[in-house]
Amino acid sequence: MRSARVLRNVITNYLRFFAGGAISFLITPLMVHTLGDGGYGLWVMVFSLTGYFGLVDQGIRPSLVRFVSRDQASGDEEGLKRIINSAIALYTTAGVITLAATVVVAWQFGAWFKIDPAMLPKAQTTVLIAGSTLALGFPLGVFGAVLSGLQRYDLANSIGIGISILRALLFVLVLRAGGGIVDLAWVSLATTLVGHLCTVVVVRRLLPVPLGFRWVRRESLKQIGSYGGFAFVGALASSLAFQTDSIVITMFLGAASVTPFALAAGLIDNVRSLVYSATWVLSPTASEMDTRGETNHLHAMLIAGARYSMLLSGPVLAALMIFGQELLTTWVGPGYRTAGVLIVILAIPTLFSLPQSAASSMLYGISRHKVVVGLSLLNALFNLVLSLLWVRPYGLVGVALGTAVPLALIGGITLAVYAAHAMGMPVRRYLWEGMGQPALLSLAFVVPALAVRQIFHPTGWLPLGLAVGVPWLAFAAVVWKWGVGPAERTRWAQMVPRAFGIRPRTAPVTPEASA
Fold it and tell me: What is the mean pLDDT of residues 78-105?
């Protein structure tokens, strides 16, 4: 049952997301207070910068997921051999280029960025280690993409959770021992490579495709390159939109100013990851449906993806906007309370853009992603221009507004309209069923949450938990009563046991339910 498989992938994605979120939530205050604003800001900035090298992976990886899922669905073993080996060749080339670029960036780091001269050697060393981590991981990353193409996110997530826990434990030991960003970078390199090696072992057991240069084909390289070229531009655009902010802040305001912005943006990124954890798995599923001509199932998945994305993210973003200052005070201290305004600015456009993540994933899966990439690039360019224009007069608020305005207009509204047209669906239906209805249901959280904040400002984990938990219970009751119909409840009752390999004792599943 396809729905059960998708649900299993989503569940394990969420296990990985919550594990990673909990680890980040616990370790961030330790890093901030141990490294200081300057050290932590430099850590964020360096990994934002070297993250651009990873864009090559974000270009090739979606194409590999697309073609592996397609060839697997059609039973094309020869195609799998050609695609996988050709991808390894491309990834190896990308690794060599990344390593060369890393050396250049490390060499020119002091000239390009505003940084304390005393910290320059550490920054350069950290850049070299971070870039080398990506370069060495590129060829091995092929196997992680193959797991995604095989729709075995459950296995990938099991490895990812284990590596995240190991990395966090080592981070704590290093920080407690007085280590700095260079030591943390070495830990990141070692644990990342261990994770890649575990993935290689798993994939070789699932899909023992022969490896070798003789399976590399020019047509496969062109196929990956054509698809991956657009995906690369899309990944570049996303990084410009969400990673450039720290670089702009470092250039104009200094590395220490990155810390409050990174705390606010990190909370919003966690909500984004909450939704992406579910929508990422839709790309290979959409590819499979497209290969088999299942257009009606694609339409149903488009609306369901937007709807559940809104139901997931709406209350969480509302909670961050309403209780953001109290959360920051409880989490990292009262000195960062003022970053609450940044949370509000960044959260509002995210409400518009997150429901489109399912559509973007599906459009990539069916090779209708060129316009999505174009919109992402347009959004990124406006983001960069507005951030540069507003950083001097408005400071961190200007950078946040530079991100928010194009994200709402382009990444939200415009992308929603295009997705509906691309899928052959009335725009009004998509906006209402996918976004409008769940947005109204989210008011069941917003109204009581605002009432709670009017009564008192909850500082401390227990008061915050109660302040958020009570409105969320009201929201959940409303969604269960009016947001989920009887047929959908029955479908969930059938899918959940199957996701864990259990056959529910129910009536036979209808064709619609098994989609």
Answer: 82
Residue with tokens 């993250």, as numbered in its chain: 51
Decide: 464 and 323 in contact? Cβ < 8 Å: yes
Give pLDDT tens digits for 216-268.
Answer: 877 777 777 766 666 666 666 665 555 678 778 888 887 778 888 888 988 99
Residue 278's CB is within 10 A of a number of other CB atoms, namely 23
**452: which 2 tokens?**
């709670």
Tokens of 50: 């070297």
- In the Cβ-directed half-sphere of 442, how many Cα atoms lie within 13 Å? 19
Which amino acid is located at 71 in the chain? D
pTM: 0.66
Share of the chain above pLDDT 90, in %: 22
Residue 325: what residue type? Q
Burial 187-202 (b: 16+ CB within 10 A, else e): bbbebbeebbebbbeb
In the chain, the amino acid numbered 160 is G
Rounded to whole angstroms, the Cα distance separating 333 from 17 reads 25
Token duo for residue 76: 């094309």
Give the three-state DSSP class for 460. coil
Please, which pLDDT band fits residue 113 given cuts at 50, 70 and 90?
low
Rounded mean pLDDT of 206-224? Answer: 79
Task: Give dist(CA 8, CA 268) in Å, integer.
Answer: 25
Taking a C-beta distance cutoff of 8 angstroms, is the pair 109, 101 a contact?
Answer: no
Reported confidence tier of residue 330, pLDDT bands at 50, 70, 90: very high
SS3 504: coil
Query: Distance between CA 136 and CA 131 in Å, rounded?
Result: 9
- Please report, for residues 57, 170, 181, 182, 352, the alpha-carbon distance to residue 187 in angstroms, rounded to integers and kept in the order given: 21, 7, 10, 9, 37
- Distance, in Å, from the CA atom of 21 to the CA atom of 271, rounded to the nearest integer, reads 10
Q: How far, in Å, CA of 274 to CA of 282, rounded?
A: 14
Residues in the chain: 515
| DSSP structural state of residue 337 | G
Cβ burial 16-38 (10 Å sphere, 16+ → b, else e) = bbbbbbebbeebbeebbebbebb
Q: Is the pLDDT of residue 460 over 70?
A: yes
Check residue 496 and give its pLDDT.
64
pLDDT of 166 higher than 80: yes
**Do the beta carbons of residue 287 and residue 66 sit within 8 Å?**
yes
